[in-house]
Design goal:
The structure is a single chain. With about 475 residues, the protein is α/β, with parallel strands linked by helices. The chain folds into three domains: about 5-245, Metallo-beta-lactamase, Chain A (4-Layer Sandwich); about 260-350, Oxidized Rhodanese, domain 1; about 360-450, Oxidized Rhodanese, domain 1, CATH 3.40.250.10. The chain has 15 helices and 22 strands. The chain has a six-stranded mixed beta sheet, with helices on one face. The protein has a six-stranded mixed beta sheet with strand order 7-8-9-10-11-12. Strand 21, helix 14 and strand 22 form a beta-alpha-beta unit. The longest helix has 18 residues, at about 155-170. The protein is globular. The N and C termini lie far apart (about 60 Å).
Amino acid sequence: MGPAYFIEPFVDTGLGNSAYLIGSHDTKKGVLIDPLRDVDRYLHAASEHGLSLTYVLDTHLHADFVAGNREIAYQTGAIIGASAEAKVGFDHDPLNEKSIIDLGAFQIHVMTTPGHTPEHISFLIVEPDNKTPSAIFSGGALIVGGAARTDLLSHELTHPLARDLYHTIHDKLLNLPDELEVFPTHGAGSFCVAPTSSDRTTTIGRERKTNALAQPQTEEEFIHRALTGLPSYPTYYKYMREINQRGAKILGGIPILEPLSSGEAKALMDDGVILLDVRHNKAFGAGHIPNSYGIRVDAPLTTWAGWMIPFGSRIMLLAEDKDQRLSATRQLIRIGYDDLAGYLDGGIEAWAREYPTETIPSVSSNDLRERLDEVQVVDVRMQSEWDAGHIPNAIHFEGGRIAWDELPFPHDKPLAIQCASGNRSMSAISVLRRRGYHNVIQVDGGINKWKMHGFEVVKDNSK
């Protein structure tokens, strides 16, 4: 006989996270775990399966997105389940290891699994015999090939949380059966983890064999492994935990943006509202509104808008079409950028009929090679990418830092901004323009095109 339930995953590759819908075949009751804030797709899936959502559960206070728990509760009446240690400021069922969620055909038991965060819990599906576990939803406590990082809250908590994570994995999770399926929230693409695997689900047995953090080791060896190779992460993370603890504003659906004329958009910009241009980077370079941010919609915005645009900013959009605008709106509300003033009706063409636009020059790899003595190449890729090889005499400065850090770039020669292919470099240029660097050019095709021509790439550990 097959399982009494089914699991439907919802993967967001931009955030690198998965939410899960668990449904009972018999009782038609459903539970949602770790949903994002734009909840219409979960509601649609539940409706298609004929499910009544009874609970919406969170494994922890998320640092990378606004939880969709209150949206689900508002629209369905589902009970919010959250760790008792999270001390959230809204109606919820506080969960601990004595908590059991009974769906009739099966039960969900709660395990306290601190490490990624202090209040972290995991959800164990147990068969009707109340003994046999068949799946665990592990949040960030155990992921494919690793575990979620412990350094997002504060420097002071980084090592204590890593110790907690050691005991969570070695004293709890590895005591579960090898055949137990593991459904993590965090995965490939998430800055909550160090790069591990592109797989989204796993088993306890697989992790016991292949996960470096699950191998026999001392606490100190574990901590060293857990804290090695962690990438930098977007600046908006520092706001998410408090929002999720307090409870985000309930939107009641995807905001429908108001159309704005060019005159209205200009007046709003003059008043400090940010214009975010989400078109393709080549379209932005060919003509854009002065002082606008150029971050293409599939950058993704959940990373780069959240890294470059000050949190709490009022934003209006410039997009190529309705679908692009909707995607941008979804991504922005997922990370708490929900003060949206509208969108420029008629796009860049409407603006250009009344006001000036700017362009960004580009340089080919061939021309750049001939001009290396005349320009300063600035490589805006991540540290790991830089370490793997870069253009000679380039300066490394991660793109996310350009909006916030003191800039060491010269003003007496052009800056040639380069990333892997051209996406991040254009976003970085839009920020540099806002910060007073106007003699900037984009390296067309980035280092990928440079390598295709067989030009020299050097390696070092400079930062």
